[in-house]
Specification:
heterotrimer, A mainly alpha (194), B mainly alpha (99), C mainly alpha (662), A: 194 residues, mainly alpha, Four Helix Bundle (Hemerythrin (Met), subunit A), B: 99 residues, flat, binds protoporphyrin IX containing FE, binds copper (II) ion
């Protein structure tokens, strides 16, 4: 942070960037909250045409949910490895997280194409619209997360190690990643199971 | 960097937590398939399970348990605000016309 | 924190911008003061544009059955007027104050994230230009059988569904063409700008306070900035998603808000006002903050009931989230909700009233200096009370069903927004003029400005009360001769032109005083807060040394003590103190590290409009340009250090004894 000499910082005791990041995450709740609200409102209504229950495949989605859940584990292990300055492991776990994220995304793309083939399209009915916008918005978050993870992994690779500076970045990406995961925990239940 | 920053758990602990998460997910899927037997209890149970997983990931993986209370306040504030506001909207749009 | 390998010094792909003067130094600046000034000028420009639109509206309404504007043009003008004033004028002018003053008031060298701050500013510019490019590229077609069937002029090729974008009117069927898409996506971009700045200000206030600046020692303006940032952070996401849905409805054939596909237009109203009501407090709280600084200074008394003002501010912000459906009394909401929201709306008037009494208590028995900032602050109190009272009359549901959608509502919100927010802003512009430019404004012209403004304002918006109660409907381009509304409408239009003249006086004063005004003394107002303890104009480094704050209104207490009767007496040696402060302020002893300028915020910000055009015109190349700009910006940003040639510190600075967060 800028000039440590003259300026005592952080009277709250929380690192500035981390504080900002948590504020950001708090507002993300409102983003997803609005989407989920809309979804639930429309879920309770009558609408014509094909429904999600006609097309979905619970075992498949369960597996991809599980994959995303486990990526949270690899993420936290990467974080842990960096805290003990084990660069090798940090990179391995980072890459693993990115790969698991990519698998989840691939699953989602596959699922969407399947649904489309079965006639469950974006504008089929109000329910399909909310479904795609909600899960798509989450998918976009996962995608951004994967890009960030890969970027971080690349930096680690090129510099033979992540620095304190990027170390903090890893912490933020980890927070972001776990957040994306908890959103999916909610979505999986709300959209698929209930 | 600050006193409130307690020691983070060890990798083994993380793996144990992940196993718990996996089991909870398995129960969720099982509940889905046994909905006919469990009946009306299924949705509330599913919600409880989701909330449980949510709390575990936020608390341990995101280290919110180990964080300064300020950070906790932000997150909880956002959650509570969202829950109240959206509950009102949902009630209004769903059942409001009957009152 | 465990020690982690040192970063190697790495050269960047792009060389760092280095100029300190000229256009590029402004474009790449990350200095909060320069960003604040740019916010101010840009917002003022949009204020003029929005004002021009208002004049066109008023010319059209000056006589019954007028033909100056077509219906289509009228719709476009009132939509753009509202949207401009709220999102491109008042909000960014407030942001100008936040940017310039916040770090100074808490004794910091800059905001927490200087480059993010530049990003906010440039996204605002990009969003504003995007929205206004609708006049060049946008189209507003003709709904079948609608009034728009005539030839549509360029003036009418702007968004025309109102600043509230009610559905389905703002949907594709009733607002064909691309204009409303410009509106939805433009607001989306502007929302990102405000959201980013909200994160920045919250963190700045919490974490960049100087030694001894406890929360309850912060100036009220800082407190109000804090409250506004929370409102922004928690209300903007809601409208962002709602606008997202609108864009989907218009572009990709979904029906979120359209009944024909099972959608729900009332849901749009909920989501819009869930944002919209916090938004009105986003507009007014900065002005509350400003007058809370101006009144004590020119009454030479401490602010009456500082904690009450602070808590009332947060009370307003909090309750402000719980009153949104008072905008929907005439829509499909249940009687229970009508009663509940009517009640909560009445309740929110309580903390607002608390503030009014605090301000009155502050000037009560004070030795008042009636100069321009003070006049505007007093005008603010008067006008805001009128607006607040008519607001309470709207909270009575049966009465409101008569008032809603009439000029009575227009009168209400102009009394709070113009008479409230804008008067407060003018007060602040005069008050901090010497701080920013190191020169004094011209007092006579300032007073002429004030008197013209308060007369013009009341002529313009006062008659709207009775016009509305007589039944003149808002958002309607003509009224018939037989309604007998002609006389007062003419008066209103005359008032509007007086306001235009007042604005010209203000501009003349500004331009003249910027160059030729008297050189401002060090502390021209004998002020209270620490931003006046440094030289004017503010040096780039703000404070030479981190100041240490010992009390609320710290600067005042450095200058004044109390005698036995509790009256303020100037301490001995205050003059020397001031000289010494100025000397110190101009000549910092230690080396100062300032964040270096950067190109990347601009690059990233201007990627967004390309994405917007890409959605409207379904163009992959445009989308690629946008994405590439975002990527280049993000990558460059991520790899360049905040400060050039300053090594990242090897060890974490000790957080020291400054644990004074409450
Ligand atoms: C004492 C506090 C206030 C109360 C009780 C209040 C109440 C209301 C009510 C009930 C309405 C809806 C009227 C209708 O459409 O039928 C309304 C409209 C409005 N108020 Fe207020 N208000 C207050 C303060 C403010 C402030 C401080 C601002 C802005 C700075 C503001 C800006 C607006 C705007 C812009 C509208 C019109 C929105 C539209 O329909 O386009 N109000 N107010
Ligand atoms: Cu309101």
């Amino acid at each position: 942070m800028s000039d440590a000499h003259a300026y005592p910082h952080e009277p709250t005791g929380v690192e500035t960037r981390k504080l900002g990041f948590w504020v950001f995450l708090s507002t993300e709740i409102l983003f997803f909250g609005t989407l989920i609200t809309t979804f639930l409102i429309f879920k309770g209504r009558d609408f014509p045409g094909i429904k999600l229950t006609d097309v979905y495949d619970i075992p498949f989605t369960s597996v991809s949910s599980f994959v995303l859940l486990m990526s949270s584990l690899t993420m936290v292990l990467a974080h842990n490895a960096l805290e003990t300055n084990d660069q090798e492991k940090t990179r391995v776990w980072l890459l693993a997280t990115a790969m698991l994220g990519a698998v989840f995304l691939a699953g989602q793309i596959y699922e969407f194409t399947e649904f489309y083939h079965k006639g469950f399209e974006l504008s089929t009915n109000i329910f399909s619209s909310t479904f795609y916008v909600l899960t798509g918005f989450h998918g976009l978050h996962v995608f951004i997360g994967v890009v960030l993870l890969l970027a971080l992994w690349g930096i680690g690779q090129r510099q033979k190690g992540l620095s304190l500076n990027e170390g903090m970045n890893l912490e933020f990406i980890a927070l972001y990643w776990h957040f994306v995961d908890i959103v999916w925990i909610v979505l999986f239940t709300v959209v698929y199971l209930i | 960097m600050s006193e409130t920053h307690k020691e983070h758990p060890s990798p083994t602990k993380y793996v144990q937590i992940a196993i718990v998460l996996a089991i909870l997910t398995a129960i969720e899927v099982a509940l889905y398939y046994t909905e006919d037997i469990v009946g009306a209890l299924a949705p509330p149970l599913l919600i409880i399970l989701a909330v449980g997983k949510f709390v575990i990931v936020v608390g341990w993986f995101m280290h919110l348990r180990y964080e300064n209370s300020l950070v906790n306040k932000f997150f909880a504030g956002g959650m509570i605000l969202a829950l109240i506001l959206f509950a009102i909207v949902m009630i209004e749009r769903a059942v409001g016309n009957f009152f | 924190m465990t020690k982690i390998i040192e970063p190697k010094k790495q050269r960047n792909i792009f060389s760092r911008p280095s100029s300190e003067e000229g256009v590029w130094s402004w474009i790449t600046t990350v200095d909060h003061k320069r960003i604040g000034i740019m916010y101010g000028y840009a917002a003022f420009f949009f204020l003029l544009v929005g004002g021009l639109e208002a004049l066109l509206l008023r010319i059209q309404l000056s006589q019954p059955d007028n033909n100056f504007l077509s219906a289509a043009e009228y719709n476009a003008m009132f939509t753009m007027h509202g949207t401009t004033m709220i999102f491109l004028a008042i909000m960014p002018i407030s942001a100008a104050f936040f940017n310039y003053l916040l770090p100074l008031q808490i004794g910091a060298r800059d905001v927490a994230f200087p480059r993010l701050n530049a990003l906010s500013f440039w996204i605002f510019i990009a969003g504003g230009l995007f929205l206004y490019s609708t006049f060049l590229f946008g189209t507003a077609g003709a709904p079948e059988g609608g009034y728009l069937a005539e030839e549509v002029s360029r003036l009418a090729s702007a968004p025309n569904g109102g600043w509230f974008g009610y559905q389905p009117n703002a949907g594709l069927k009733y607002s064909p063409g691309t204009a409303m898409d410009y509106w939805a996506i433009g607001l989306q971009i502007l929302g990102i700008a405000s959201l980013v700045s909200a994160f920045n200000f919250i963190t700045t206030i919490l974490n960049m306070r100087t030694k001894g600046m406890r929360l309850m020692r912060m100036p009220v303006f800082t407190w109000m900035t804090f409250a506004v940032s929370f409102l922004l952070a928690f209300s903007l996401p809601i409208i962002a998603i709602a606008l997202f849905f609108v864009t989907f409805d218009r572009q990709f054939g979904t029906t979120f808000f359209l009944t024909e596909g099972g959608g729900d237009p009332v849901l749009w109203q909920h989501l819009f006002w869930l944002f919209g009501h916090p938004e009105v407090y986003i507009l007014i709280l900065p002005a509350f903050g400003i007058v809370s600084e101006v009144l004590p200074t020119f009454s030479r008394k401490p602010l009456f009931g500082y904690p009450a003002i602070v808590f009332a501010g947060f009370g307003i912000a909090f309750i402000g989230f719980g009153v949104w459906a008072h905008h929907m009394f005439a829509s499909a909401i249940s009687p229970v909700a009508q009663a509940g929201f009517g009640l909560s709306t009445m309740i929110i008037a309580v903390p607002t009233g608390v503030k009014i009494f605090n301000w009155l208590g502050t000037i009560w028995g004070g030795r008042l200096t009636l100069n321009t900032p003070m006049l505007f602050a007093l005008g603010f109190i008067g006008m805001f009370v009128i607006g607040g009272l008519s607001g309470v009359t709207h909270s009575v549901v049966p009465a409101d069903t008569q008032q809603t959608d009439t000029y009575y509502i227009v009168a209400h919100f102009h009394y709070v927004l113009f008479g409230g927010a804008l008067f407060g802003i003018f007060s602040g512009l005069y008050f901090w003029f010497p701080k920013v430019w190191g020169r004094m404004y011209n007092e006579t012209m300032g007073k002429i400005h004030f008197w013209l403004m308060i007369i013009g304002f009341n002529l313009t918006f006062g008659p709207m009360h009775w016009l509305g109660l007589q039944g003149q409907v808002r958002r309607t381009w003509v009224y018939a001769e037989e309604t007998n509304l002609g006389f007062w409408n003419l008066i209103v239009t005359i008032g509007a032109f007086i306001l235009a003249i007042a604005t010209l006086v203000f501009m003349a004063n500004w331009i003249y005083s910027r160059r030729k005004g008297e050189v401002a003394p060090f502390d021209p107002w004998d002020a209270r807060t620490i931003e006046w303890s440094i030289p004017s104009p503010t040096p780039v480094w703000n404070f030479s040394n981190a100041p240490e704050v010992k009390s609320l209104d710290d600067f005042w207490h450095q200058k004044y003590g109390e005698d036995e009767d509790g009256r303020a007496v100037r301490r001995e040696g205050t003059d020397e103190l001031l000289l010494q402060l100025e000397e110190e302020g101009l000549n910092p002893k230690e080396e100062i590290h300032l964040p270096s300028p950067s190109y990347f915020p601009v690059v990233m910000a201007f990627g967004l409009p390309f994405l917007g055009y890409a959605i409207i015109y379904k163009s992959i190349p445009l989308a690629l340009i946008g994405v590439i700009m975002l990527l280049i910006g993000g990558f460059g940003w991520g790899t360049e250090p905040l400060e050039e040639e300053f090594e990242s510190s090897e060890e974490e600075p000790e957080s020291g004894e400054s644990k004074n967060y409450e």
